[in-house]
Automatic annotation (TrEMBL):
Entries under Pfam families matching the protein: FBA_2
Name of the protein: Sdz-33 F-box domain-containing protein
Sdz-33 F-box domain: residues covered: 251-304
Organism classification: Eukaryota, Metazoa, Ecdysozoa, Nematoda, Chromadorea
Keywords: Coiled coil
Organism expressing this protein natively: Caenorhabditis nigoni
Gene Ontology MF terms in the entry: nucleic acid binding
């Protein structure tokens, strides 16, 4: 029907705005000039009323709100309208953060702002006089709002596992991302064991309540956390911390406090793109790394960006490595101050300042 309306309206038609529940359209809006038609499948809303959710919630008919309304209503989409293809890419993000709660969030894989579906708090976080009044149940209490459902548990770790399992089963999705601080380290093994598919993103955040992590915790995170696309380390590391293991393979590595990253780490990191802030890598170390790369090492890496903790003098870089100044502005190449060629002919351009170093490997030219 939407296709026929669109065909008859011709050049005056606008793309329909469609909201989906899985593969099923639950609302659609069609505009042509000043005319507007709005379709709504009420049964798709009623079928998943909160009052009809599993007995674990012990809900009654007095509870208001509908699951598709909470998660698919246009008011929640900030004027974005998603296609069937986009909605099929829903994924789950799990948060174990410093404000004493575990959260299961759901959103499109390319969205930055994910919507919390369920939150698990420790029972001590419950403000009893708050509105609406919490509903008591065996094992936890719950509070409902238009934003999410908040559950309060005596054992918050158990509660976090419960809500993640529930949301994953409800939407038939795998966990996409894991965001933790030192209090959520338990979730690494749990996620690895609960699903065959590897996480796409792992993020280790700083907990403002704790200044430094124990080395054994950091070693455990670096040796056991797995992800395929992003590996993000935002937490603080002790001044003298050293890591002698291997990280990767992952597509992207981002480190916010990289004073602990050594030359050996750089040469063994198995990442395509690496960005390190607060690096203490010396100019001599960079000389050694570039020789390593030129000889064929770190062949999978296409980008290295270092923000250095202190000033560096790169004046002798040209002499040490026989690199050439690259001032060409050929449209086929990225701009760079200097270039270096690997033994197999692959070229990289470099740009550096007193506190920065960036290296980008150029894609091979096609031979026509």
């Amino acid at each position: 029907m939407l296709a026929e309306l669109n065909r008859q309206a011709g050049i005056h038609a606008r793309d329909p705005k469609v909201i989906l529940n899985g593969m099923t359209i639950i609302t659609a809006e069609f505009k042509c000039k000043k005319q507007k038609l709005h379709f709504r499948d009420s049964m798709q809303f009623l079928a998943m009323a909160l009052a009809k959710m599993p007995e674990a919630f012990e809900l009654s008919g007095e509870v208001k709100g509908f699951l598709p309304h909470l998660y698919n209503h246009p008011d929640n989409y900030r004027s974005h309208n998603y296609s069937v293809d986009g909605y099929n890419k829903n994924t789950i993000e799990v948060f174990e953060d410093y404000d004493s709660r575990g959260r299961a969030g759901i959103g499109l894989e390319w969205e930055k702002d994910w919507k919390a579906v369920l939150s698990a708090y420790h029972i001590s976080e419950l403000d009893e006089p708050s509105e609406p009044k919490p509903i008591e149940t065996n094992g936890f209490k719950r509070v409902f709002s238009l934003e999410s459902i908040d559950l309060y548990f005596e054992d918050r770790v158990m509660g976090t596992k419960w809500i993640v399992d529930y949301v994953a089963d409800l939407f038939n999705l795998n966990v996409h991302s894991l965001v933790i601080d030192r209090n959520g380290i338990w979730a690494i093994d749990w996620i690895n064991n609960r699903q065959e598919k590897m996480l796409e993103c792992f993020k280790f955040d700083k907990n403002p309540k704790y200044h430094l992590n124990a080395e054994k915790d950091l070693n455990y995170v670096l040796r056991n956390a797995r992800a395929s696309d992003y590996f993000v380390l935002n937490d603080m590391f002790p001044v003298n911390y050293r890591f002698d293991g291997i990280l990767g393979p992952v597509n992207h590595l981002l480190i916010s406090h990289g004073h602990w990253v050594t030359l050996d780490n750089l040469m063994t990191f198995d990442f395509i793109k690496i960005k390190v802030r607060g690096s203490r890598i010396s100019v001599t170390d960079l000389h050694s790394f570039l020789r390593h790369w030129r000889a064929g090492g770190s062949h999978q890496m296409t980008y290295l960006g270092l923000q250095l903790e202190t000033y560096r003098n790169f004046e002798r870089l040209e002499e040490e490595l026989e690199i050439i100044e690259d001032r060409l502005r050929n449209g086929d190449e990225r701009n760079g101050d200097y270039s270096i060629t690997r033994n197999d002919g692959v070229k990289a351009v470099m740009r550096f300042g007193t506190q920065s170093f960036v290296m980008t490997v150029l894609p091979p030219r096609e031979i026509i």
